[in-house]
């Protein structure tokens, strides 16, 4: 199977006077699974549709493999696409849905049978080949839609929120299927979603987008642990990262002051020279730990609410100055509303952001 890289340079897309993407650059390696992640309206689907040739660009260049396809027709780009809606032919069987595009392209019947059989086996559709879409579940229909793209043997596969119409259990099952499929095929895949769990579990790299701009392009681990700015930090992670406003001080050793609480910054890896300035401290709920309230490094907080979550619990607290935050604890942790706890905030788990720009410090 052909595997193509994708290179996008200075891409510009607009509708009337509205600029959606401006001077956007992106490189996708051959065989890479890249996820475009962001909220509705951030430009991720527009970017995917531009790669597919479904919308016109105003400037820049799109290359797939060694070809400039900026102005090429979708059928000439060597891509296959899976849409949010299944878009299956209701009167055709699964077999005919899978083979229709190949027949239109006048592929020899023996090759069609081989490709359809291979895709059906990979996606566990063999026993469903003679059924119509109305006789299938939502998950089965989406597998047929994926199979219809697979039989194309394309250089790049594009997925536009393919799981958003499914319930939570089916989404989890299909995520595993897509992950296995990529591991087996080694194909180049670009996947659009607003679901951070899909992004973190599927991607080799994630491009987090906001306002038509790629805010951070990196591995899931790096984006989760070292978000480039406050938007990425707040968008990726569930429960959300906690944010505390305060200021950085150097006197007496580097520290972050929030109200009456002093957080030691020894162990934090600054990206730029340290200076006294207003800042925002971020820390994820799973990194805060319960310790004895008499411990020298303990931060005391009052419990407001405990949310049991099965395997663990989410505990909501407030500092003395009223700042609210949450942390994860064992399901059987002894904490209830009104309790005062001693907590450890490890500096190595901090993310510090400039108070004005929101960029990581």
Automatic annotation (TrEMBL):
Annotated GO MF terms: ATP binding
Annotated ABC transporter domain residues: 3-236
Entries under Pfam families matching the protein: ABC_tran, TOBE_2
Alphabetical keyword list: ATP-binding, Nucleotide-binding, Transport
InterPro entries on file: AAA+_ATPase, ABC_transporter-like_ATP-bd, ABC_transporter-like_CS, ABC_transpr_MalK-like, ABC_transpr_MalK/UgpC-like, Mo/tungstate-bd_C_term_dom, NA-bd_OB-fold, P-loop_NTPase
Stated role: Involved in beta-(1-->2)glucan export. Transmembrane domains (TMD) form a pore in the inner membrane and the ATP-binding domain (NBD) is responsible for energy generation.
Family that this chain belongs to: Belongs to the ABC transporter superfamily.
Name recorded for this polypeptide: Sn-glycerol-3-phosphate ABC transporter ATP-binding protein UgpC
Highest classification ranks of the organism: Bacteria, Pseudomonadati, Pseudomonadota, Alphaproteobacteria, Hyphomicrobiales
């Amino acid at each position: 199977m052909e595997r193509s890289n994708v290179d996008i340079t200075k891409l510009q897309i607009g509708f009337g006077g509205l600029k959606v993407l401006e001077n956007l650059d992106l490189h996708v390696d051959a065989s890479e699974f890249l996820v475009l992640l962001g909220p509705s309206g951030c430009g991720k689907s527009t970017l995917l549709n531009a790669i597919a040739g479904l919308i016109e660009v105003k400037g820049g260049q799109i290359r797939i493999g060694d070809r400039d396809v900026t102005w090429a027709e979708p059928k000439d780009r060597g891509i296959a696409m899976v849409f949010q809606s299944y878009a299956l032919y209701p009167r055709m069987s699964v077999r005919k849905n899978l083979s229709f595009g190949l027949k239109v392209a006048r592929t020899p019947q023996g090759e069609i049978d081989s490709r359809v059989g291979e895709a059906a086996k990979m996606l566990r559709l063999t026993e469903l080949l003679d059924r119509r879409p109305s006789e299938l579940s939502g998950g089965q229909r989406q597998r047929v839609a994926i199979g219809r793209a697979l039989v194309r043997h394309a250089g790049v596969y594009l997925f536009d929120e393919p799981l958003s119409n499914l319930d939570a259990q089916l989404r989890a099952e299909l995520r595993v299927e897509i992950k296995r499929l990529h591991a087996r095929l080694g194909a180049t895949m670009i996947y659009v979603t607003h679901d951070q769990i899909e992004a973190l579990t599927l991607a080799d790299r994630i491009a987090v987008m906001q306002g038509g701009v790629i805010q951070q392009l990196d591995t899931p681990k790096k984006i989760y642990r070292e978000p480039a700015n406050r938007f990425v930090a707040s968008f990726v992670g569930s429960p959300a990262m906690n944010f505390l406003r305060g200021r950085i001080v150097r006197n007496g050793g580097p520290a972050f002051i929030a109200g009456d609480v002093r957080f030691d910054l020894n162990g934090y890896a600054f990206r730029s020279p340290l200076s006294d300035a207003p800042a925002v401290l971020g820390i994820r709920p799973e990194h805060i730990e319960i310790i004895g309230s008499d411990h020298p490094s303990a931060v005391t907080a009052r419990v407001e609410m405990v949310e049991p979550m099965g395997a663990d619990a989410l505990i909501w607290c407030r500092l003395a100055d009223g700042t609210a935050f949450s942390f994860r604890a064992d399901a059987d942790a002894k904490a209830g509303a009104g309790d005062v706890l001693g907590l450890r905030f490890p500096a190595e788990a901090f993310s510090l952001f400039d108070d004005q720009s929101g960029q990581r410090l």
